[in-house]
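Model: You mentioned two targets. I'll fold them one after the other.
Researcher: Yes, keep them separate.
Model: Target one:
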Amino acid sequence: MSPDLDRLTRLLGGELTWLIERVRKRLERGETLDTSVTLTAATPAQRDAVHRLLGRRPRAGNTLTVSLPAVDGILRSSGASPAGLPAAIIALTGPITDRNERAAAVDAAWRRAFAPLAALVETRPELADWHTRLHANGLVRRLAGTPESAEPLLADLARVVAELPSAGEPLGTFAARTAHDAHALDDGRPLATLALGAARALAGLPESSSRETWAAVGVLRDDVSSTVLTFGFPGDPHTATGRALAAFRSAGQPVVLTLRQLVADPPRLTAIPVAICENPVVVTTAADRLGVACPPLVCTHGQPGAAVMHLLRALADAGAELRYHGDFDWGGIRIANVLFERLPVRPWRFDAATYRRVAAAHPGTALTGIPAVASWDPDLAPAMTELATKVEEESVLDSLIRDLPPYPGSL
């Protein structure tokens, strides 16, 4: 027989609402009802309601202890709920879902959503750590919300990551081919956020801009506006970019390379010493004074962009010896920190001892701005703070040019 809702409401309503809530929570957690529940600081009305339900005399004190088996027996014997207390709670409050069963079902749904990535990682062990972090950090849950929403997102992610690294493909074209949406990998889109994490893992770039990250795995975003100024690279006859470098070097002229050229048609690089400067004036002066005798030189032109970082990383991978000089000001320190912290770069006349000498010999303008610690030389920032003099590369051009050894075979 079904519970008698009117009788149940009279028996368990009003001041016994707390009892109904306690029982429901136990049922939702899959806990037994073969126990008692206690209410501390009970009101006189709540105590009276329990005493009436159980048919016992009022007891002193503010604490109520109610035997759930006793309540179950009363509901069965009275006919208010022939199936007992659980059926009564359902009749009064609605269907009950076991929280443990629901949690297990949700976990199973998330496993199904992650299945395409799990299958991919089995064949791409280099992605294992990224996959583990993605499970642990909750990013997918924050972006997708539910496993049902995550399932198509992670299926797209698996297809995108499976195609990395690419071979110099524009980002929109790559997105259309792998995710069937040319804008799926635009900044801010959930798929782009997840895919960038995989790209950083593949490229070994824990910190980098999205443009730099995509370029590192052969996907080009705005591939011609990011450039790098170079001079003196020997080039090679095997690629168009390499032949262009060789031609410009033989003419003693600097050359600007685009990110597209470096990714889609990279020159062959070797383990050669490479000097890096911050300002283009160093490159033009080297071209004027040294011409074809100048060794390879790269200019960051301020904060290094994607093309600069891509070239320098390729040089480092080839075993090139990299050394850097920049402006002795706080902005110059921050620019240098990017290079020293992310690449195997050595200072080139860019330390505390050098600063003290050039600041005395070439007094510049007053040093202003917010100080920054030089990651490669802990004594540099204190020296700059003490002398408070800004020294730009233009002031030490002669020293820098003299440091550039003649390129082998140029004389």
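Model: Target two:
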Amino acid sequence: MKKTTIAWILGAASVAASLPFAAQAYNAQEVLNSIHASGLVAAQDLEKQYGYWTAKATQQDGSRAYVLVNDADGSLVALRKAELGTTHPGASQVTAKLQAMGYGQIKEVEFDDGFWEAKVRGANGIKQKLVLHPVSLELLSQPGQPAPTPGAGAGNAILSAVQIHQLLTQAGYTHIHDLELDDGIWEADAINAQGFRVDLKIHPETGAVLREKLDD
């Protein structure tokens, strides 16, 4: 993983603010530029998953923070693990949220790389692993499955490798290789429009890039 150093100045331990770009899907360089303008340093592990860009960075007081940037509207949240259960929801609030949603046998509630995760049993008796937003506790997705895509119908045919390659090329990716369907998700290595080598996870039915992770 390439470690990209950026500069932030962050007055508070956590922040939620709108970043200065129009509603669209953002690329890695735009996110890094916006984080730079917001004020943390030494950002690393930038990737896109569940509709958010995530990274780790250091605040001016030396503490580490998890950063989430909404890929739809550019809003940004930064939080520290020490704030969970105080400034931001903790494991007990996550459990209460899932219980209110009708899930049972909730266990292994843990904070991992900026998101809350939990293993639950649904009303149909099926065991599931869920991912929730760390602040709003919005249910985002189940790991290993595509994040919900607006307007995408259920049961659509899985796109072929040729179709995925064409869509990635149209989106500005080059040197696309190691393209394969793994556990129902297309994966590929490529160079993005900004010249960074990235690992990609692609929605199997729509071709939308679900995760773009900087690679060495």
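Researcher: Noted. Anything on target two?
Model: The chain has three domains: 15-83, 91-141, 161-211.
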